[in-house]
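Notes to self, F-box domain-containing protein:
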Amino acid sequence: MKTENEESPEFEQGRCEGAQVRPHANGGQWQLANVLLPELVDVIFRYASQDKATISACALVSRDWRELALPHLFSDLKFRTRNARPLKHFQDFIDAHPHIARYVRKLELIAVLDAPMDPLRPLDLRTLAAVVTSLAGLRVLYLCEPFFDGTDSALSSLSSIMLPRRLEKLTVDICRDEEDTSTTSITTLIGVLRTFPADSIHLSYFDIACVPPSDPRMAQLIQSSSNSMHVVDLKLDRLDGSCYGLERLGLGHLFDALCHVLKPGYLRSLQCRPYKGSDYGDTTKQLFGKFLHHTAETLQDLALPFLLRLPVRYEEYKPDGWSVICLDECRNLKSFTLWLDPPKIHSPPDSPGVHGYHGVPLSMVCIAIMAHLPHTLRVFTLGLCERFDPEHIRLSEVGLDVLDDALSGQRASSLEKVKVVIGSKRDFDQDDWVDMDACSRAVREMMPQCEERGILEVVEEPIAMVPPVPFSGVSADLSCLAVVLIAPSEFEPLFSADAAFIAMKVAEHVYAISGRADNLMCSAEWAFLSKLRPNSLSLLINTMETDNRNTSVVGLTREELPSLATTSAGFNTLPPELTDLVFQHASEDRDTALACTLVSRSWRDLALPHLFSALTVARQAAFENLLTFLDIAPHITRCIRALELGQISDEDEDCYSQKPPPPAVRLDSLVALVAKLPALRVLLLRGIFLIDPPSTDSHIRANPITSPGVTSPGVASSGVLKHLEVHGCFTHSIPDVPLVDLPTLIGILQALPAESIALRSVNIATTSPSDPRMSRITDPPTRLHVRELMLDSADCQADYDMSSLYDTFCQVLAPESLESLRSRVGRDTTTSPGPMRSFGDFLHLTAGALLRLDLPFALSHPLQPLEDDPEHWHILHLDECTHLHSFTLSITPPFVRSRSISQRPHVPLSAVCIAILAHLPQTLRTFTLAMCDELTTAHWHVKRRKLGLEVLDDALGSGKRFPLLERVEVTLRQPHHPDIAMDACKQAIQAVMPQCEERGILQIMRETGEQV
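result:
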């Protein structure tokens, strides 16, 4: 029978793994639906989607959670690619799991153009149309920098594609239909718009290639698409036309084409934002007037696509000069926008030789255009492509005072708002900046009449509009839950009272409740109240008010605070998974949760398991206080699930700064502490001084810890830790090198048994075999059952006594219990015969159940004799790992300037890798090649020869040796120098491993696990 984990979906960031997915049998009837409103559940998952790993984890272990989380996990999908492979994989995924298709609401396809070694292929619109057709719930389609196929055959094939439904919004950003250009022909653009019909269309940031209507392709496309597009909202953002002669006709011909394909009676909004350097002519005006005549009947919001600049053209300062654009026919217009390009002070004045009227301000052109507008106009917007201040532009040539007189006249009496928009920063020079206060002052001084009427508004053009969170419809008794989960800056505050006033009122009456027996509060703990955010204070005061049943205790009336009911009763009915998720995202506002526990018994019982779930003890005094605290409050011991003793200092920290001494912990005290924590699952020992008292060694190791019964709900009762980590701990030290005795280290592992053990930066001191402590640890009454072992020696000072560590593991670990042996090695971890022989004996003991193996040494130049011979590696007993799925080899990138003393200088490192791979079973599914040092592309031809990745590509890419191989990872060490580009390394590796890249199994990863 398959478990819940095997049935769950695994699809993330445009990649599907092919896991099985089936819908919930009970139709999604979950108890949470009876507690939370759907609107609030949507808000919770929307803000929790930043941590999709958490939501996915909940969906993997709970069928109910899966039913609730799937619509949000798949609601917004994003693909970054240079080809259509992810789309085809996604189509296969949807075909296998059709119930997922109804969850997808938004699909984003972003072309990756910064990988020149991967050829850029045109976007297959037929494949995209098939994907869009299969997504029944799709509403938004976003195409960023797509490369369309503008050939005749591709366009003719689009005529047969018709989607069964319309999209709500289609966005095409920075598109092209030729690889070496940045332009898109009108025929290609109209074909795309016809293929994906949408109510709202947004086109931005690309050049339009001029295609006259007489062109056969254009005529055929217009004939097949005549009056077929029902567009309600059309936005053209910074489009430009290719230059033909003296006029850019691309934009005009676009309007001409839209005039034929748009069905009249639907368009309500036409928003055009011209380029700062764009230009127009009489032909463009005539073609735009033809389009406006076609759509004027229902148009309510209009922004002209022309950028007005000096000198004023002939007849344009008169109303007759603008009659050609048919503004008189827009009888229902309510909003109108004009864009100006004010002249800069440092720019030369217009010379008399330039065609146009000199000395006529731009405002006269605005007045001439507005003469054609109807009386229904309510909002007039004036966009400025420059910052408006007296030190930057010539104010007199703009003439806002003249425009102010016109807007205050009888004709503009119906105006409700005059908005002046200062262009966004992307339109300015690099050294330019926007002082909005200065711009606002200058505009208001030039337009006093509009300011006096209260209709003037000066704003900055937003670069990206972020829609507000829809918080309406959420009942008041559930608002507190949203406050805990969501950052208050993301939605409208729940109350308007001043935060400082509320904090003062709380401080005045804190002593009225601090003396109550059921509160663990002291006045000193309220010092943080002044730092709380307003919504957090609202939650805090409401909880105090509910608990005390007395509004006078808080000092605020019901009218001063929102009517919010307590949420503790609702929380008690929620599943533990949701409560954990809520408090996990509320951890950034830990002070708020702490304040609630101080004043509310219900909140205290709810929040304590989360406030004390993870503790960090960094100093000696804190460790002693923790022991005392647990004796006083034994109920807290059931809440602690993760404990960190000590703390590793940051490498970037000032080495001369005074640091507190690390905690000194006796082994018997550590065991006694862990025995008090029945729910403890993770124990981290970092940089602490370990004291191993000889008098208690035998007692500790003969009696490993066991946990008593745990009464907390949802916590398993077991005496074995889930994870134990020993990081940089020491028992003594030589100058600058902390050392740990092997008997002490093994004694910790035996006294604190764990399923997963990690040893990081642990320098093993040489211990004499005659040491009596060695005899005690190597003859344990029961062996340790460890499933995962992590050995991190990358930060160790040198190769200390690793042989003794492996030999000791052979005597203390249970045979065939280890499933994963992970290693992280440094560039100096060499293949010495002694440690290799000991590691081979250790592998012989654990090979039967091993699924993942990382070799704990690095291959590097100069090569030793016979290292490229498979017989040389028999000592490791790799042949006995018959169930191995994952294998990692570490290599040190060669240094070009180093002189090799190898006896075989022409043998690449890949030959050694192949010699080792000869011993691995055919069950291998993942092979990882980890770089132990920075890899750069400098002198790449020399490094390429020494690495020999082509030979490794032949061995892995053919699929003959490892037919089940699914993934080949090359892990790059994060460079210390910021100028080292990892993208260049990725492209170089992909070029020398073409077979693995063609099969789609090659992945270039960072050391942190992220993909490059």
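- The two ends are 38 Å apart (CA to CA).
- The mean pLDDT is 71.
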